[in-house]
């Protein structure tokens, strides 16, 4: 039989690269890149190519199952789909009839249905749809969404940049933009651009950079403020951008930055003041073709929101926002923005402590339902009442802070969570604590329309389609939700009147030129005639300064005379959109933080030292966890080729530190968490003694330490998460992964 080339989209990580599956006799022979993908341009990373292993994992879940022993006992009986759907919907009906739909909580990890899960929770009537965002990127998204308003994500125009200043993003190995980003940064470097990386480790990105600057954890914001100080002190700023496009005057910026001297930054971060001066000059002189990039090194901290904000301000200071080669962005949702087929269920009006935690009023206003790291503590403290937990594509006992310990205990407690349904493809640690398990099709066997922010700065749409049928009785998540909705009641069924997943996608794809047929053929739709969308804040509105119903004030803010509604900014005799903030300017001040938070949280970007890092004892270190190029979260440890490349995660330790404790290669040592209640969690780990790490930091990669997840994954490496406490940035709401204080002990 001829080999078929079937276009689809990878989902072995969230970068969603266009992919071509070469299929022969119903088997995938090879996975390659789709050159039509505007981001990845036909490249796949090792993880993408290894996804064949995922499909062929001998330990996949192939049938619906019900537990036949106590929860967590590992005893299962196979049941039919009919039985499973009937048992689950009986529970659903009770909750809906008794008018407590909010006691159904959907917890999910990697959702690329782009709206279908929300259709389900909205139709159900629960506001409790919680993703893993609170663990992932919330602090960054909160900062971008409040400071520029248009979006929650950056899309720098790397290929045209002359200077790229990287605060804690490891895009040569990870980052949501991975393949497409590194291709463009490499291109810029070939054209002479400079890449400077702050990281606590010599990551592969740091290694590919012109300079690696080993920074003390959690001090990136201070270094950014000190760079700003030099830019303003030496008059290298872009006066026009500051005066016209930000909500503070140049004098305010100057007065504010005066405090943040390079000398102070050197004391806290270890980055020499002279280096900060040098970077400030180089960054400003490359502007507007200069950009910053950030990720979890910057924001996965207790002060993450402010670190992000401080870095963002550097682009405002030199006026590189929206410019060719600068810090660009795509207004709107950076994921897929194809309108959903109707009818759409109304958004539930009820709010709960899970969807809107009282402790995080700023997050509730800007990003409701995103502060998901609170879910398990709140359930344990009975702040939230949960009857049914529906988990999808998420492995909380592995990947949540205190996952294998506290989170697993909460999930095992039938008083706290009476009913737990897990939709998974593998025997994960989440499946271990389920009552019912529904087998999902993997991404090579299912349908989605999908996209990410395109570095070509124009929209595109990709198709994920089954390249082989799902094995056993596995079903596409959309088919599962359609079946659940139809069986629950007629009111829910109304929003799920589709024969199956394919039918839904066909109707949805009608909004795209050429519809589903075009996508099935090419995998990608992109309108290449559209130019790169630079300077989105200068986009014209339908208003003009000469309109009789429009007034503008001395700051150029345009309003409707009738009701004072802000409509844009005055610009060359026209009214342009500006930024999507209340006064259409870049926010150097966020007064709402002061109004919402009774704490001392400042309303301008500041350096907020991490309390736990103050007075660090001589024997105390900061534990960092990071992502390898060949693994994704806890989810690829069952993919054989990848574990053959990296199959363990020893602990990186600086030679000077190792020497202090007499630690030698191949000799285990002990790391203890500092000052936690009860017995401190500890790990006994193997060292990698290397100068490629800050002397005050220990680093372990995530992805390993499974006690479930099948024969390939099980019992390899360590899971650091028992050591990592559930700490939240009280402003941004994100989990602080990179602040854990630990002690070292020799193992005798
Ligand atoms: N120590 C440490 N912990 C971390 C991080 C870190 O850097 N260090 N990173 C954090 C970050 S950024 C994130 S985003 C979170 C991610 O945390 P999670 O969202 O929990 O992601 P995974 O750990 O990959 O778990 C996803 C699970 O989905 C299941 N799965 C795999 N394929 C399929 C499928 O086709 N269908 C279905 N239904 N299920 C499937 C598997 O059980 C898999 O384990 O982890 C966080 N945890
Ligand atoms: N290969 C791979 N790719 C992935 C994923 C994956 O699991 N594997 N997951 C996807 C997801 S969900 C996410 S959220 C992204 C995450 O993408 P990234 O944020 O780029 O990756 P991380 O490894 O979480 O963290 C980045 C770096 O921060 C450094 N770091 C720690 N503390 C500090 C600090 O205080 N300052 C500085 N400057 N650096 C510090 C770490 O050493 C690490 O190299 O990747 C996505 N892509
Ligand atoms: S970066 Fe790799 S794993 Fe992620 S989507 Fe692209 S090819 Fe797949
Ligand atoms: Mo993430």
Automatic annotation (TrEMBL):
Record's keyword annotation contains Iron-sulfur: yes
Source domain of life: Bacteria
Pfam families membership: Molybdop_Fe4S4, Molybdopterin, Molydop_binding
Cofactor entry: Mo-bis(molybdopterin guanine dinucleotide)
InterPro entries (alphabetical): Asp_de-COase-like_dom_sf (IPR009010), MoPterin_dinucl-bd_dom (IPR006657), Mopterin_OxRdtase (IPR006656), Mopterin_OxRdtase_4Fe-4S_dom (IPR006963), Prok_Mopterin_Oxidored (IPR050612)
Gene3D superfamilies linked to this entry: 2.40.40.20, 3.40.50.740, ADC-like domains, Dimethylsulfoxide Reductase, domain 2, Formate dehydrogenase/DMSO reductase
Residue stretches making up the 4Fe-4S Mo/W bis-MGD-type domain: 3-59
Keywords for the protein's UniProt record, in alphabetical order: 4Fe-4S, Iron, Iron-sulfur, Metal-binding, Molybdenum, Oxidoreductase, Signal
Family: Belongs to the prokaryotic molybdopterin-containing oxidoreductase family.
Protein name listed in UniProt: Molybdopterin-dependent oxidoreductase
Biological source species: Halobacillus naozhouensis
